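Progress against Task 2.4 (sequence-to-structure conversion) is shown through the following example record, which the project officer requested during the mid-term review.
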Amino acid sequence: MKSNFGFLIAAIFIVSSVNAQSKAVEYKDGNQVLSGVGVKPSKGLKNNPGVLILPAWMGIKEHEKDVASELAALGYQTFVADIYGIDQRPNGPKEAGAKAGYYKKNIKEYQTRIQLALDQLVKQGANPDDIVVIGYCFGGTGAVEAARANMKFKGVVSFHGGLGRDDARTIEAINPKVLVLHGADDPYESKEEIEKFQNEMRTAKADWQMTYYANAVHAFTEKGAGNDNSKGAAYNEKADKRSFQALLDFLKEVL
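Structure tokens generated for the chain above:
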């Protein structure tokens, strides 16, 4: 009985994914042409909730597209943001690091690109009052920064994202709910930075949660990251599945 039920759920998911309408969407930031990916559900949920997906440092890849399709199959309007621009795709990790580093230092420009993508999600049909922003690695940093800017959405989810903030920046009240999904052994976030982030959330009187995943390092949702934790970034199937379920629970609660 259980196996038949599982097969039925899998079949429904496959059909829903096929029926979901995915397309490239061009939009602009001044003269810079951006190209995101919008996925419309074949059958949307009540009130047309939306999820904006912020990519990792390499830009839009199959992982973000797959997440967009999975969430669309569940009825969410989804949109994958283009942060860099259609002619600004990084050619490798070194270039990606430089581009991501630029936006981490120029937060206002990062926030502008996120807002433009939010606008596209709403144009696609998402209810502007029922949106959650999620992000992976560099995109997780963006999700937290979007919350710091109090953009118009219900909440953010950061998967193994950077949490740092310049101490010179004023801590403002944070209205969106915040969920941080973090590898317990992630070497790229120091204890001091995590403690500062948590204190920031308290000072900002945010509704926040932080979940740690055992034996997980940076990029634990990225299947292409390999499985060698000693490199600091590696895929962890258990953490990937658990964090995705945490996302679904958050979406149900918030939206």
